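Contributing: when you submit paired examples, paste them exactly as shown. First protein:
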Amino acid sequence: MNTMNRNTKKIFGLVTVLLLALMTLHLVSAASAVRVSVSKYEPYPATPGQLVKVWFLATNDGDTAANNVILEAIPEYPFTIYSGSTVKNIGFIGPQSEYLVDFTFKVDENAVQGNNILKMRYKETSLANAIEQTLDTTIFVQNQDATLTIDSVTI
């Protein structure tokens, strides 16, 4: 009987843990869940001394609306904001919805050719425990002028 009682307690404990896990999953899915990704940037590749327009897609994967969503560009070398503010207040994003926002940056004339990082920050400010997220976007920069160097000629 003691073994049966011990097994019953183990089964009851396991069922309780599973029920708590399921309740937690439901609570998480009932909240808004904003994430931001790069949709595209033009021109591709970006060119030193020129402008590049970057589109960001803010997605609410949650089951409730996201309110007061803010997206902020943190331009660092070789990028500077070209026009407008570095902060865009998206506002409301419905559940299972998306919002497209764009920023225009100027690429420094002396930018290094290759992948360069553009930093973004976003958050939903209506939440009491608003978590600020950051996004590092890779922007490929390539010189417009191609240089051909001849090392040697053999006849």
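Second protein:
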Amino acid sequence: GPYAYPTWWVEGAAGLLPDLWLRNNWEKFSAFAGFTFDDIAVEAIKVNEMFKFQRRMIMGELSPEEENEVPEENFYLGTKDESYDTSNHCCANTANAYIAHLTSYETVWISIPKDAYELGFEGSFIKHVGMTLQEFYDDYNNFMRQGHHDDDPPDGFYPEGDIKDYVDFWQ
């Protein structure tokens, strides 16, 4: 319906926040005293590695031990990723980080959902991102296929430091 939120946005916006928060705050926990980031880093909070893995999937460049014989087109972000029944959930976090790269993390977590009830998700997306969902899918897939599959994401793709410096959750 008009208030439906696409699976890739719901899962990506929700998953990205704790990943980024823990990546930037893990040292504050006494339970991690004496450990390094690599000691505690679960796959998700190694966001640059997740970005590279998702880029390799979209480019069809998985290594033999990662290979799962699925054509890379299956990993492209598209309308199939709007539904839980058909999404493979592969690029949800990276797609939301890409929205933030184009606009801001405030757009991902505050602006889009704030206007989605009134405008519908796509209407709010168009208002804040400046393109339709299909235009975004095409743009994201093209972006992820550029460069070398082991390139780091562009500078600023993932925020460094306190998320409160990027998003005012209390406005």
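If you have annotations for the second protein, write them as plain sentences, like these:
The mean pLDDT is 87.
The first helix runs from residue 7 to 25.
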